[in-house]
Amino acid sequence: xxxxxxxxxxxxxxxxxxxxxxxxxxxxxxxxxxxxxxxxxxxxxxxxxxxxxxxxxxx
Length: 59
Hints:
This protein is mostly helical. The chain contains three helices and two strands; from the N terminus they run E-E-H-H-H.
């Protein structure tokens, strides 16, 4: 779905899944996201996208 793209293909996590995980766990870094929901912790190809989401949410 274009409105909610898959960001982490390894775990099939969409943008909204990652945003929910960031908010639920109070993530501030890509490493926090990896620890909390494992996004970015498998192959690492989505790290830049996760950082962009973090920047948007956390300023």
